[in-house]
Amino acid sequence: MSTIPTLVLMSKRPKLHQGKQRLAKEIGANAALVVAKSLFYCALEDAANWPGKVVVAISHKTDVLWAETLLKTILPDTQVLYQGEGNLGQRINHIDTSLRTAGHQALAFIGTDCPMLNMKFYHHLPAKLAKSDVLLAKAEDGGVVMMASNKAWPDLSSLPWSSENLANTLALCCQDECYSVTYHESNYDIDKLVDLARLKHDLLADERLARKTLSSQVFNCSHLFKMNQ
User: Fold this and answer.
1) pTM assigned to the model
2) What is the CATH code for 6-227?
Protein backbone atom coordinates (compact mmCIF):
# COMPACT_ATOMS: atom_id res chain seq x y z
CA MET A 1 0.00 0.00 0.00
CA SER A 2 1.38 3.42 -0.98
CA THR A 3 2.34 5.88 1.74
CA ILE A 4 0.24 9.03 1.47
CA PRO A 5 2.62 11.99 1.37
CA THR A 6 2.05 15.15 3.36
CA LEU A 7 0.58 17.80 1.06
CA VAL A 8 2.41 21.12 1.39
CA LEU A 9 0.67 24.19 0.00
CA MET A 10 3.16 26.98 -0.68
CA SER A 11 1.09 30.14 -0.67
CA LYS A 12 0.86 33.87 -0.21
CA ARG A 13 -2.01 35.66 1.48
CA PRO A 14 -4.05 37.19 -1.35
CA LYS A 15 -3.49 40.93 -1.06
CA LEU A 16 -3.52 43.91 -3.37
CA HIS A 17 -0.14 44.17 -5.13
CA GLN A 18 1.04 40.87 -3.59
CA GLY A 19 1.23 37.97 -6.00
CA LYS A 20 -0.16 37.61 -9.52
CA GLN A 21 1.81 40.66 -10.64
CA ARG A 22 2.17 39.53 -14.26
CA LEU A 23 -1.58 39.08 -14.40
CA ALA A 24 -2.13 42.42 -12.66
CA LYS A 25 -0.20 44.22 -15.40
CA GLU A 26 -2.75 42.94 -17.91
CA ILE A 27 -6.04 43.12 -16.02
CA GLY A 28 -5.36 45.55 -13.17
CA ALA A 29 -4.53 45.01 -9.50
CA ASN A 30 -8.13 44.76 -8.26
CA ALA A 31 -9.13 42.13 -10.80
CA ALA A 32 -5.92 40.19 -10.19
CA LEU A 33 -6.69 40.16 -6.45
CA VAL A 34 -10.14 38.68 -7.11
CA VAL A 35 -8.55 35.92 -9.18
CA ALA A 36 -5.79 35.33 -6.60
CA LYS A 37 -8.33 34.90 -3.79
CA SER A 38 -10.31 32.41 -5.83
CA LEU A 39 -7.18 30.46 -6.79
CA PHE A 40 -6.20 30.30 -3.11
CA TYR A 41 -9.57 28.78 -2.20
CA CYS A 42 -9.28 26.27 -5.05
CA ALA A 43 -6.01 25.07 -3.53
CA LEU A 44 -7.64 24.86 -0.10
CA GLU A 45 -10.44 22.85 -1.68
CA ASP A 46 -7.83 20.35 -2.89
CA ALA A 47 -6.22 20.30 0.55
CA ALA A 48 -9.57 19.62 2.21
CA ASN A 49 -10.00 16.52 0.04
CA TRP A 50 -6.46 15.24 0.54
CA PRO A 51 -6.51 11.93 2.49
CA GLY A 52 -3.22 12.61 4.28
CA LYS A 53 -1.70 15.36 6.38
CA VAL A 54 -1.74 18.94 5.10
CA VAL A 55 0.64 21.83 5.77
CA VAL A 56 0.04 25.39 4.57
CA ALA A 57 3.33 27.28 4.24
CA ILE A 58 2.81 31.05 4.23
CA SER A 59 5.31 33.39 2.57
CA HIS A 60 5.09 36.29 5.04
CA LYS A 61 5.57 35.82 8.78
CA THR A 62 2.98 38.50 9.56
CA ASP A 63 0.33 36.40 7.76
CA VAL A 64 0.78 33.21 9.80
CA LEU A 65 -1.85 34.21 12.39
CA TRP A 66 -4.26 35.14 9.59
CA ALA A 67 -3.81 31.70 8.03
CA GLU A 68 -4.20 29.88 11.34
CA THR A 69 -7.42 31.78 12.09
CA LEU A 70 -8.83 31.09 8.64
CA LEU A 71 -7.99 27.39 8.65
CA LYS A 72 -9.44 26.74 12.11
CA THR A 73 -12.90 26.69 10.56
CA ILE A 74 -12.28 25.08 7.17
CA LEU A 75 -9.21 22.86 7.70
CA PRO A 76 -8.87 22.49 11.48
CA ASP A 77 -6.18 19.77 11.39
CA THR A 78 -3.89 21.72 9.08
CA GLN A 79 -0.49 22.91 10.29
CA VAL A 80 0.58 26.44 9.30
CA LEU A 81 4.27 27.25 8.89
CA TYR A 82 6.24 30.33 7.87
CA GLN A 83 8.24 29.63 4.72
CA GLY A 84 11.34 31.46 5.90
CA GLU A 85 13.62 33.86 4.02
CA GLY A 86 15.29 33.66 0.62
CA ASN A 87 14.21 32.65 -2.85
CA LEU A 88 11.64 29.95 -3.49
CA GLY A 89 14.24 27.19 -3.54
CA GLN A 90 15.62 28.23 -0.16
CA ARG A 91 12.13 28.43 1.29
CA ILE A 92 11.19 24.97 0.00
CA ASN A 93 14.42 23.60 1.51
CA HIS A 94 13.55 25.27 4.83
CA ILE A 95 10.04 23.79 4.95
CA ASP A 96 11.29 20.42 3.73
CA THR A 97 13.94 20.22 6.47
CA SER A 98 11.51 21.36 9.18
CA LEU A 99 8.88 18.78 8.26
CA ARG A 100 11.28 15.87 7.82
CA THR A 101 12.89 16.70 11.16
CA ALA A 102 9.39 16.56 12.66
CA GLY A 103 8.86 13.06 11.25
CA HIS A 104 7.18 13.63 7.89
CA GLN A 105 8.62 11.35 5.21
CA ALA A 106 7.07 11.78 1.76
CA LEU A 107 6.19 15.39 0.89
CA ALA A 108 4.27 16.78 -2.09
CA PHE A 109 4.56 20.52 -2.73
CA ILE A 110 1.93 22.44 -4.69
CA GLY A 111 1.16 26.14 -5.18
CA THR A 112 -2.03 28.09 -5.80
CA ASP A 113 -1.56 28.66 -9.53
CA CYS A 114 -3.03 25.49 -11.03
CA PRO A 115 -6.78 25.08 -10.46
CA MET A 116 -6.99 22.42 -13.17
CA LEU A 117 -5.38 19.82 -10.91
CA ASN A 118 -8.19 17.33 -10.39
CA MET A 119 -9.15 14.38 -8.20
CA LYS A 120 -7.64 11.91 -10.68
CA PHE A 121 -4.31 13.72 -10.43
CA TYR A 122 -4.32 13.60 -6.63
CA HIS A 123 -5.65 10.04 -6.47
CA HIS A 124 -2.76 8.63 -8.50
CA LEU A 125 -0.05 10.77 -6.86
CA PRO A 126 0.84 8.45 -3.91
CA ALA A 127 1.20 5.33 -6.08
CA LYS A 128 3.32 7.15 -8.66
CA LEU A 129 5.56 8.65 -5.98
CA ALA A 130 6.04 5.19 -4.43
CA LYS A 131 7.83 4.09 -7.61
CA SER A 132 10.64 6.65 -7.45
CA ASP A 133 12.47 9.05 -5.19
CA VAL A 134 11.06 12.16 -6.87
CA LEU A 135 7.82 12.78 -8.76
CA LEU A 136 7.41 15.97 -10.81
CA ALA A 137 4.41 17.38 -12.64
CA LYS A 138 5.57 19.80 -15.28
CA ALA A 139 3.89 23.08 -16.12
CA GLU A 140 3.45 23.87 -19.80
CA ASP A 141 5.62 26.98 -19.40
CA GLY A 142 8.59 24.87 -18.25
CA GLY A 143 8.01 25.16 -14.52
CA VAL A 144 6.34 22.62 -12.22
CA VAL A 145 2.82 22.45 -10.81
CA MET A 146 3.76 19.78 -8.25
CA MET A 147 7.02 18.44 -6.86
CA ALA A 148 7.05 15.46 -4.53
CA SER A 149 9.87 13.52 -2.93
CA ASN A 150 10.48 10.58 -0.62
CA LYS A 151 13.90 12.02 0.23
CA ALA A 152 15.13 15.42 1.39
CA TRP A 153 15.34 17.87 -1.48
CA PRO A 154 18.89 18.76 -2.53
CA ASP A 155 19.99 22.40 -2.39
CA LEU A 156 17.43 24.23 -4.56
CA SER A 157 18.70 27.76 -4.01
CA SER A 158 20.44 28.16 -7.37
CA LEU A 159 17.63 26.79 -9.57
CA PRO A 160 16.14 29.13 -12.22
CA TRP A 161 12.78 29.70 -10.52
CA SER A 162 10.08 31.29 -12.71
CA SER A 163 11.90 30.27 -15.87
CA GLU A 164 11.15 27.88 -18.72
CA ASN A 165 14.10 25.72 -17.67
CA LEU A 166 12.97 25.05 -14.11
CA ALA A 167 11.48 21.56 -14.50
CA ASN A 168 14.45 20.19 -16.44
CA THR A 169 16.99 21.82 -14.12
CA LEU A 170 15.16 20.51 -11.05
CA ALA A 171 15.20 16.99 -12.47
CA LEU A 172 18.92 17.22 -13.21
CA CYS A 173 19.57 18.57 -9.72
CA CYS A 174 17.84 15.54 -8.22
CA GLN A 175 19.59 13.10 -10.57
CA ASP A 176 22.94 14.59 -9.55
CA GLU A 177 22.09 13.34 -6.05
CA CYS A 178 21.37 9.90 -7.55
CA TYR A 179 17.64 10.30 -6.96
CA SER A 180 15.33 8.54 -9.39
CA VAL A 181 12.90 10.94 -11.09
CA THR A 182 9.55 10.18 -12.72
CA TYR A 183 6.75 12.39 -13.98
CA HIS A 184 3.08 12.90 -13.23
CA GLU A 185 0.52 14.55 -15.52
CA SER A 186 1.53 18.02 -16.74
CA ASN A 187 -0.77 21.04 -16.53
CA TYR A 188 -0.71 24.82 -16.81
CA ASP A 189 -0.38 27.75 -14.41
CA ILE A 190 -2.51 30.88 -14.28
CA ASP A 191 -0.05 33.71 -14.86
CA LYS A 192 -1.42 35.74 -17.76
CA LEU A 193 -4.67 36.86 -19.36
CA VAL A 194 -4.38 34.16 -22.02
CA ASP A 195 -4.37 31.57 -19.23
CA LEU A 196 -7.63 32.97 -17.86
CA ALA A 197 -9.21 32.75 -21.31
CA ARG A 198 -8.22 29.09 -21.51
CA LEU A 199 -9.36 28.44 -17.95
CA LYS A 200 -12.80 29.90 -18.68
CA HIS A 201 -13.35 27.09 -21.18
CA ASP A 202 -11.68 24.31 -19.16
CA LEU A 203 -13.75 24.96 -16.03
CA LEU A 204 -17.14 24.74 -17.74
CA ALA A 205 -17.77 21.14 -16.69
CA ASP A 206 -16.00 21.30 -13.30
CA GLU A 207 -18.50 20.82 -10.47
CA ARG A 208 -16.15 21.53 -7.57
CA LEU A 209 -17.53 24.46 -5.58
CA ALA A 210 -14.41 26.64 -5.51
CA ARG A 211 -13.87 26.00 -9.22
CA LYS A 212 -17.46 27.03 -9.97
CA THR A 213 -16.83 30.26 -8.07
CA LEU A 214 -13.61 30.83 -10.00
CA SER A 215 -15.37 30.06 -13.27
CA SER A 216 -18.04 32.62 -12.48
CA GLN A 217 -15.42 35.24 -11.67
CA VAL A 218 -13.44 34.54 -14.83
CA PHE A 219 -16.67 34.73 -16.83
CA ASN A 220 -17.26 38.19 -15.34
CA CYS A 221 -13.67 39.28 -15.79
CA SER A 222 -14.54 41.65 -18.63
CA HIS A 223 -16.42 43.73 -16.06
CA LEU A 224 -13.47 43.60 -13.67
CA PHE A 225 -11.05 44.64 -16.39
CA LYS A 226 -13.15 47.73 -17.19
CA MET A 227 -13.04 48.72 -13.53
CA ASN A 228 -9.24 48.78 -13.64
CA GLN A 229 -8.76 50.71 -16.87
Assistant:
1) 0.94
2) 3.90.550.10
